Amino acid sequence: MMSETAGSDDKMTNFAANLRLLCDRQGSISQICRKLGINRQQFNKYLSGRHMPSSGNIRVIANYFGLGPDVLFAEHEHFRALVDGNFFDVLDHLRRAPQVVRFLDTVAVSTKIDMGEYVGCYDRYQYSSIYSRKILRSAFCIFQNGDFLNHYYIERFPSYDNPARTEYIFKYHGFTFPVEDRVFTIDFETVQRNEFTFGIFSNVQRSSKRFMFGIVSGVAATMFRQPFSTRAVLHYRKAGLLSRAELQSTTTLDMNDPSIPREAREYLGESPDMIKPA
Questions:
Q1: 44 and 177 part of one domain
Q2: Which residues of 181-216 are buried (b: 16+ CB within 10 A; e: fewer)?
Q3: Residue 98 in domain
Q4: Residue 228 near residue 276 (C-beta atoms within 8 A)
Q5: DSSP 49
Q6: Is 38 helix (H, G, I), strand (E, B) or coil?
Q7: pLDDT tens digits, residue range 149-158?
């Protein structure tokens, strides 16, 4: 079992590595320190992993880079995937867009949203649009980022010839909008950079486990990946961000695989119900 000291060391190491990555993309450390109001010598200790900022300075740093504080402590591999996908650059542009501001104002007036109710890690189940009659289990995470809910998820497809080897990996980043007991998602794939996916989900209150059932549609700018629409299930797994444990479980599964929750199998049905162009 990992000790509290070991866990704290990992947290500090992740924070330092993520902060260095962000600073590398911003340019001058001195200029960053001036804008943050943090002493350069103290900031260097954060960058080297020798000292953890106070909770107040963590908030200041998070606000400066336009992130939620929890995101700064993500495992560095996953944090880099977010940054390399230009996700935060897109987020910054959208935050300033008048259309987005008006939309969020409308949502805030029309419903009271407890954003914390939705954050956390989920297993995401749907029939695969690539592997016929296989159910895809991907790792899906919703996290709060300022006034937004954002999400990212990762799909892994095993090789036909060698199932122990991963043939394809797709990474999606996007926005989550809870509206009137529904959850709307829009995201884009950041490996091939050519696909948008849209979804609408509804919470299932009658289940003792936490499920969201819905419909997702994908549109790709390539003849090899046709547009599709299919049922999808989000099954809550834990609080926080994705870790290696969640990523290791991502794969395609036989339709009757016992690891798929019964509720998910019943909702997805016995046929793919995949809607594709003729």
A1: no
A2: eebebebbbbbeeebbbebbbebeeeeeebbbbbbb
A3: no
A4: yes
A5: T
A6: coil
A7: 889 999 998 8
Question: What is the percent of the chain with per-residue pLDDT over 70, rounded to a whole number?
Answer: 77
CA dihedral 58, 60, 62, 64 (to 10 degrees): -150
Where residue 12 sits, what CATH number does that domain have? 1.10.260.40
Question: Whole-angstrom Cα distance, residue 219 to residue 226?
Answer: 7
Q: Which CATH number does the domain housing residue 249 bear?
A: 2.40.128
Task: Look at residue 8 in the predicted model and tell me its pLDDT.
Answer: 73
The encoded tokens of residue 224 equal: 């090899």
Same domain, 159 and 224: yes
- Burial track 96-127 (b if 16+ CB lie within 10 A, e otherwise): eeeeeeeeeeeeeeeeeeeeeebbbbbbbbbb
Domain range enclosing 35: 4-67
Is the domain of 164 the same as that of 235?
A: yes
Give per-residue burial for 61-70: e unless 16+ CB within 10 Å, then b: bbeebbbbbb
Cβ neighbours for 125, distance < 8 A, ≥ 6 positions apart: 135, 136, 137, 232, 233, 235, 260, 261, 264, 268
Check whether residue 128 and residue 260 sit in a common domain.
yes
Residue 128: is it exposed, middle or buried by C-beta count within 10 angstroms (0-12/13-18/19+)?
Answer: buried
Q: Are residues 48 and 181 in the same domain?
A: no
**Residues 129, 252 within the same domain:** yes
Q: How far is CA 62 from CA 57, 95, 112, 145, 235, in A?
A: 8, 15, 25, 9, 29
Q: Which residues contact 126 (CB under 8 A, 6 or more apart)?
A: 135, 136, 216, 230, 231, 232, 233, 268
Q: What mean pLDDT value characterizes the chain?
A: 81
pLDDT at 2: 44
Candidate ranges 19-23, 111-115, 211-215; pick with highest mean pLDDT: 211-215
Rounded CA-CA distance 13/74 in Å is: 10
Which helix (H) or strand (E) segment is 203 a member of?
Answer: strand 195-203
